[in-house]
Amino acid sequence: MRTHAHRFVFVGALVAALCLLAGSGGAGDKEKVWKPFLPAKAYKELVTRAAKNSEEALTGTPSEEAIKKAQFNGLMIAAYALSAKGDAEELAGAQDFALKMAKTAGEKGKAAQARMYAVSLAKGIAPRAGKMTDLTDPKAYVELADLMEHYKTKNKGGEGIPPALQSNVRLKGTQNGIEEKLRALSMRKLTDANMAKEADELALLGYRAAVVGELTYFYTPKKKAKEWQDLSLDMRNAGVALAEAAQKKDAEAVLKASNSLNSSCSQCHSGFRK
Fold first, then answer.
1. Are 271 and 241 in contact (CB under 8 A)?
2. 95: which of 48, 72, 102, 152 lies 20 to 30 Å off by Cα?
3. Contact (CB, 8 A) for 165 and 181
């Protein structure tokens, strides 16, 4: 069981991630939160990975941590569907299964049922559905701290980064984490060889960051609400910029986007980190 203090530390991680991911532009306009920027190929890959992670987490008798991991991935799949370009009814069906997975995973004795949803999503199988849910209350599925935990290094409970992004010894070891990778990207331009090697994974990383930004918008605190919302949408925009730069294999643009992702750190820390 996590302590409240532990969760408080994770909330601090949100601010760090916002600092790393916040760029310029954006406005706290609820009507503009969800945008269809996610290409079909990237959507399929991200959903498949998230579903397989959930399937693995829900095998056997899952721990509390495993259940939270499945709920996080379910929420992400639902958000991917809202951010994707494609057949509206197919996307709605995937979102419906993803939210059912997130919900049932947290209910006593229903881990096996939740895993069945994950298996179907991993195979790309879900009944077509009607209108999608806007996900204006993601905290009904995942707490803010759990949403941001995956940015931490792997040895501190984070998700880590795939081998293609482990471009130095530190990123293969103690700094194996999304936040640390983003920091490294902002410090030095990738070589042509590394740019070619990392392009596909960097694009996925950027798109994931953008979707997390959209979700983060709806965890708005009572104080400085507009600032929070602006930063959330900046996070979305900066993630898309990184993804598009990576797809073009433009190392200079990746460096520029990464520097933009880090530019608001001091503002984030002074405004929200306690």
1. no
2. 152
3. yes
Q: Give this prediction's pTM.
A: 0.86
**Which pair of tokens denotes residue 96?**
């419906």
Tokens 């590394």 map to which residue? 194
pLDDT of residue 262: 65
Report whether 58 contacts 118 (CB < 8 A): yes
Give the domain ranges of the chain: 12-34+167-274, 35-133
Lowest-pLDDT choice from 28-42, 84-98, 243-257: 28-42
Taking CA 267 as the corner, what is the angle to CA 179 and CA 155, rounded to the nearest 5 degrees? 20
Given a contact cutoff of 8 angstroms between Cβ atoms, the answer to whether 60 and 130 are in contact is no
Quote the CA–CA distance of 45 and 53 in Å, as a whole number.
Answer: 12
Angle made by CA atoms 270, 136, 147, in degrees to the nearest 5: 55
